Structure formats: C-alpha cells, structure tokens
Amino acid sequence: MIRSVRSPQGASRTTRKAALGLAATALAVSALPATALPAQAASDPLARYHHQHLDWKSCVRGQDDTTGKELEQAGAQCADVTVPLDYTAPDGRTITVAISRIRATDTAHRVGPLLLNGGGPGGQTLGDPPWVRQAMKDVGARYDVVGVDPRFVGRSTPLDCHWPTGSAFRSPGFDRAGFDRMTAFSADLAQRCRQHAADVLPYATTRNTARDMDVIRAALGERRISYLGYSYGSYLGEVYTTMFPTRVDRVVLDGVIDPDRYSPRLLRGTEQANRHALKGWASWAAARDATYGLGRSRGAVLAAVDRVQAAAARTPLRIGDHRVDEHVVPLIVFNGLSQDNDSAYGDFAQAMRDLSRAADGHRVTASPWLADALAFLLTGNDSPYGSVQTAILCGDVAAPRDPEVYWRDIQKARARDPLLAPVTNNLNPCAFWDPPRERPTTVRDDLPALLVNATGDPRSTYEGAAAVRRAWPSSRLVTLRGADQHAVYGVYGTPCVDDTVNAYLATGRLPATDITCAARVP
After folding, report:
1. Which of 254, 262, 297, 519 could disulfide-link to 482, CB 3.0 to 4.6 Å?
2. Taking the CB of residue 435, how many other CB atoms lie within 10 A of it?
3. What's the pLDDT tens digit per position in 306-365?
C-alpha cells in the first residue's frame, strides 16, 4: 500500500492504508459571502474563491481530539477553505478543504507559507505542522507552516464508499480460484463507490487537489507558496508546479514518485526493494530470537513467514475476532516494511509471532500493531481513507480493464517473489472504474526541487528518484544510503539530510551538487 507520513512520535509514522472512495454523507454545500472584489478580479472565474475571508479558530473539536490539542499547543489555528467541486463549473456545487497554520514568528525574515502533504493519496496532513515545524528547527520561525487535509480527506468534505475494508489491496493468493475471488472483491468495491458516490467520484483527482492548493494560496493572500510533499505528496507537488509554475518558491519532495510510472499500478516494480526490506527485518528478528521466537537465522525467519502464509491458505488463522487468510497475510507483511528502526521492526516481529502462534492452533489476542492492521484490512473503520485513495488513483490514470492482463503479470512475478510480487501486480477496483475525465499531467522537466530518497525505500523506490533527478537537471538529490526507509526528512533522524533540507528552506539555494548521507549505524 501507499503510505502517508505521520508524526515521528505518533502512533504511526506512515499511514499503512489503501482503499476505495467517497461518502454517503452529503457533500457540504456552502455559499461564499458577498464581498467587494478587486477590479482585476472581474475576469477571474475563481475570484470569489481566491478572495474569500478565512475564519481562523481553534483546531480542537471535542474533548477527545488529540490532533486538535496538539495543534493548539503548538500555536496553530484552523480554517475551512471553500473550493468548487468541479472547476469547470465554479458557480456550482462547493466543498470545503480544512487547513491548519502555525504562523511565522520571525516576521522580519518571513519567507511565506509552506504547504504540507504527507501522501497516501488520502492521508491527513492537517495535524502535521507541529512535528514539521520542529524538524525545521530555527528556519521554521520564518514560515507559516500549513497542514492541509486534501479534498475528501479527514476534516474536509468527506467521501466514503461504505466498504467493509480500509484497503483495496489484496494478494491474489496461490491459484486461479483465489485470483477470481479477488477480482469479484475488487468489482464489488467499485460498485459500492458507484452506488454511494457516483456524483463526486470524477472530481477526486490530483489535478483538482492541485487546483485546491492554488485556491488556498490565494485565500492566504500569497503570491507564491513553498511545498513539502512525501510519497504520493511528491507527485502532487510535481503536478502543482507544472500547473502553476509561477506560484511556487521552494519545493522539497521526499520519497519521490517518478511521474512516468504513476498509475493505479504504481506498486509494480517495488518487488526487489520490498524483498530487500523483508530480508533486513528478518536479520534483525533473527538476532532477537529469544524475544520473538521466529528463528535464529535470516533464512529461518523468512521460512516462518512463508509457513504462516501456507497455513492461512489451508485454513484462515484465528486472531481474536478476525479470520486472516492467504489474501491478507501478505498485506500485513507489506505494511510492516516501510520504516527502518527498532520500534517498527519490533511491532512487525510481534505481529509475525502472533500469526505464527495462530498457525500452530493457539488462541491469540493480537498485539497493538497487528490489531490496528487487522481492523484496517478487515473492517470498515477506515473505509473513507481507502475510498479516497482508490478514487484518486483511478481518477488520475486509467488502468487495464481485462483481468487476464493482471493474471499474466502475477504468474510472471511469482518467480521473483512468491509472497509480495502477487500483491504489487494484482488488480484493484480501478479495473472496474469509469475512465478519467482528464488526461494525466505531463510533468515539466525543469522543476527546481530538492529531492530526498533512501536507497532501500520499499514504497517510492530509489530508482524512481534517480530517474526524476536525471529528467530534471535543475533539481538536486539527497540520498540516504543504506536504509530501507520510506520518508526521511524529519522522520528518520539523520542530521545530514535534515540540515541539507533546512539550509535550502532557509536560503532558497539548492546544493551545488547531489548529496549522499549515510544511514545510522545500529
């Protein structure tokens, strides 16, 4: 699945999610106040959006709102920005996009707003300004740090297809019967979206999200914005700077997606990086066999993972109230492989220990990380997240519609990696989606951005970042060598990367050359 970056201190640094999009909840329809507009706005069809008044208020929504309290403690305020549902009909239906802002305190040296996107697609970013502001150190005082829940996400106008899962992704299993089950599963998810949200599905796209960003820029009263985007957020940044090239200042893209490879099948090609990350974790777990009991060598740990998958194919594993089958086990493994640190490795090792015990017939209560992953995959708790993610992927680029295309790719991929390659090559609801309304964005080739990527990133692979660097001579690439890490700046914790990004944000000058940083020594 595609991850969106979360707080380094929070419950999850990356989302762990993927699914199908839109809400039966009625879309908010708001009327903008009648205000006197500048004369030059008369020819601007979006004038009433660009010149709207933002009502800044407390971010706290109720006693249990942890995100709101963290924002308030950091000095942030929140507002709703009204945008058109359909930019070709700006006088029609409207929706709201929720934003948060920590204002610059060094007003004498203020640069302007820094808009954030933590990826997904479908990830919430409204709560991210406090930890990003902390990662920026002294330079953060010169920026208004702005978190955005993109259209249909989080506190923005919601979308929900009412799925029984938070993820459209599944493994096809071992045989054609399993693939056929997942084909029916994907078709059902697509049908649920048509049933609950057909009127808004066409407008859940990256290009519309970029248009929303430019309305936010104007509503903030700014000529230009700077931008920090992680994972899918890197693609959003590529699209925004292509659509609005004169309105960007400093751009940082971390976990870089190659726009030429962006599609509903963007996980294809990550097999080698995911297998490398799995081997790295297995070595870590083998060194801690006394704690997790998965085996005393890397090979033994990997064999334990395969044994769990084989057992789940025979009979679904009982984990609390859940039944975990061959279509779900590989997703649990996939979700365990994006963060290169002891805490994340330990969570995943405990989950595999739980699954291994279940495979042996024991009654198991899931550890916290596994319980969260199973709730995401096997209940509708996170249906809105998966709904938006899938709607955007399907709405941006058309996917092959013939299931046989996917079946052939899966069969070829099994030889490379029988556990994870079938996941990355499997079909999803986009095979049953209506065609996109717009052509995919042809991203400009002169983007002056600072690119950041780890060599072992299992989501946004290093090969993609290197391809983007070659395509954009005016950019620079900061490489974190030797880490199987998705999202680096402010997350992984290496001064070499963080200081390079902060120097660029402070001066606006890219490094003279590409920079390579070493991973932490265990």
Report:
1. 519
2. 10
3. 999 999 999 999 999 999 999 999 999 999 999 999 999 999 999 999 999 999 999 999
Element (H, E) at 477: strand 476-481
What is the rounded distance in angstroms from the CA atom of residue 353 to the CA atom of residue 339? 19
Mean pLDDT of 139-149: 98
Can you give the pTM of this predicted structure? Answer: 0.93
- The phi and psi torsions of 273 (rounded to 5 degrees) equal -65, -40
Tell me how far apart the alpha carbons of residues 43 and 184 are, in angstroms, rounded to a whole number. 49
> How many of the other CB atoms lie within 10 Å of CB of 152?
30
Range of the domain at 466: 47-159+199-265+441-518
DSSP 224-271: -EEEEEETHHHHHHHHHHHHSGGGEEEEEEES---GGG-STTTTTT-H
Looking at the structure of the chain, the number of domains it has is: 1
Helix, strand, coil percent values for the chain (each to nearest 5): 40, 15, 45
Among candidate residues 95, 111, 417, the one with its CA nearest the CA of residue 272: 417
Residue numbers annotated as active site: 231, 457, 486
Query: Can you give the CATH number for the domain in which 84 is found?
Result: 3.40.50.1820
Is residue 250 assigned to a domain? yes
The amino acid sitting at 272 is: Q
Q: What amino acid is encoded at 472 in this protein?
A: W
193 in any annotated domain: no
Report phi then psi at 54, rounded to 5: -95, 130
DSSP letters along 123-134, please? Answer: ---TT-HHHHHH
Residues 6+ apart with CB under 8 A from 30: 82, 94, 96
Output the pLDDT for position 446: 87
Cα gap 235→443, rounded to integer Å: 9
Rounded to whole angstroms, what are the CA distances from 156 to 30, 268, 320, 401? 13, 31, 34, 31
Q: How far apart are CA 159 and CA 383, in angstroms?
A: 9
Whose CA is closest to 173, among 314, 32, 327, 65? 327
How many Å apart are CA 57 and CA 32, to the nearest integer?
18
- 279, 285, 287, 288: CA torsion to nearest 10: 180
In a domain, 306, yes or no: no
Tokens 């903030």 belong to: 220
Domain presence at residue 436: no
Residue 328 corresponds to which tokens in the numbers above? 């779900």
The residue behind tokens 């945008």 is 83
Quick one: residue 137, left, alpha or beta (phi over 0 = left, psi -120 to 50 = alpha)? Answer: left
What's the rounded Cα separation, in Å, for the pair 383 and 391? Answer: 12
- The string of pLDDT tens digits covering residues 158-210 is 999 999 999 999 999 999 999 999 999 999 999 999 999 999 999 999 999 99
Q: Which of 377, 299, 268, 286 is nearest to 332 (CA)?
A: 377
Which tokens is 417 given? 């990696």
Strands 450-454, 248-254: pairing kind: parallel
**Distances from the Cα of 469 to the Cα of 248, 447, 510, 516, angstroms:** 19, 10, 13, 14
